Amino acid sequence: MAKTLPKTDVVIIGVGWSGGIIAAELTKAGLNVVGLERGKDRKTEDYFMVHDELRYALRYEMMQDLSKETITFRSNEGIRALPMRSYGSFLLGDGLGGSGVHWNGQTYRFLPYDFQIRSKTIEKYGKNKIPAEMTIQDWGITYDELEPYYDKFEQMAGISGEPNPLGGARSNPYPTPPMKKSPALQLFEDAAKRMKLNPYMMPAANLSEGYTNPDGISRAACQYCGYCERFGCEYGAKADPVVTVIPVANKTGKFQIRTHSNVRRILHKGGKATGVMYTDVTTGEDIVQPADIVVVTSYVFNNVRLLLLSELGERYNPETGKGVVGKNYAYQVIKGSAAGFFEKQQFNTYAGAGSLGVTLDDYNGDNFDHSDLKFIHGGAIALSQTGSRPIQNNPVPSGTATWGKEFKAKSLHYAYRTLGVGGQGASMSFKHHFLDLDPTYKDAFGDPLMRVTFDFEEQDRELGVYLAARSAEIMKEMGADHVDYLKEIGPYEIVNYQSTHNTGGVIMGAEPSTSAVNTYCQMWDADNVFVVGASSFPQNAGYNPTATVGALAYRTAEGILKYREKGGLLV
């Protein structure tokens, strides 16, 4: 029998960006909060002088153990899903701070169009522009309504950047200046400007200078070591929950973190949650934590899976389109890239930072005319200098042998003569892309795994090829002697890494018939349950999701305090 602990005001499931932000805001307001994290503890000292590409980038030190829990995948409902046994298309973070510790730090705001995509698309192009099977929808909230929360996240994290000339209005400038502009970035910017495009420095959670945030947290500037993605930052220069919001919550004395605590069920009765049941993975003991409010802030797949396992909310039925939990899974089209090979110029791309780059939005959102195109939306195009670590980087031009003397010679020749320009395409939701529980495969506790049903559609293929062609045009303008770029996209494959930008499954909206949560990430079916993260996105934009996740977390924290005072569904 499970052991029952004393009741707390709030229990948070997963202590990453969303969980850390909400814990900080609620404890500052005087609430007692328990944070349950199924992974281990983390601190900055863990990464002092640990530039180990093999351990972290290739052996996935900071990722979920797939032998104990994974997902299953199929491209359509007509085939059997199989477990993902090794990492490929995306990486599932584990441990305190979650994916917020090993991210790159690229911190874009979504465009105003993203939040009203269905209504804006129909208004400009008509209903026929949206395919019958595409299930995109407005968020129920506008960019202007979310903007103050974007600003709050940026001020907390110390984001370094400059305004997007094609983005939404800002209430404040970025708190710190843009990062340094390397020769490669300058080359991209100059070429883009000659093409009458609108480049700007990428908004970065890698600090350009020392910074103290509104909570009094001080951090040092980035050293451009090139070890950001899949790594923890030894300087604390990369904003992550462990060095920003979690210390604020801890300082209040009202936050208790329990690591190695795998939450397996949300307990509920009569339309309200009563707490959670979790397993202490160090002892195998099942524990019940009662709480007035339950906040689900784990990764996309885990948020959806926990609701389904707990039988909380109406599960999505792809045949009828009814139900909401598991609906509108979307990803990212990281296919619109171009590689340029230079004979006379050399670049030190081994130095860098996770969000050191120049980007442009001329082909993102609805910033260009889609009348004669077979897709909607688009994506940001950027040249990023994230650090070309030696094991994973040895590009050669197309037509080169993939092994042997020629491959080795050209690998050495182009080691400092290669740049990449890439498009990050939006991913639209479709009726037949969804998440549910696998009927066959189970985790180490005997609970069903999360099953993903997804494939690239004509929308994705057309968008990806379009962005690749635009990327190639910029690369040619930069003066590359040889340019390789994507000319067609086949079926989605789960074996090659693309991005960890999975979204949907517990989507946000204005009506309970088409969404699982309202604009405060509060469940329609259980008003004391809040589900926060990229699982709220009804479809994905042409950017990294973290800034929007952070903004939603701040708005949710505000909503929880309102709920604590008055109760009921928030409006």
TrEMBL record:
GO molecular function, one term: oxidoreductase activity, acting on CH-OH group of donors
Chain ranges of the Glucose-methanol-choline oxidoreductase N-terminal domain: 142-329
Pfam families in the cross-refs: GMC_oxred_C, GMC_oxred_N
Key words, A-Z: FAD, Flavoprotein, Oxidoreductase
Superkingdom as given in the UniProt entry: Bacteria
Ion transport among keywords: no
Gene3D superfamilies xrefs: FAD/NAD(P)-binding domain (3.50.50.60)
Residue ranges of domain Glucose-methanol-choline oxidoreductase C-terminal in the record: 439-553
Family indicated by similarity: Belongs to the GMC oxidoreductase family.
Name of this chain's protein: GMC family oxidoreductase
Organism: Paenibacillus agaridevorans
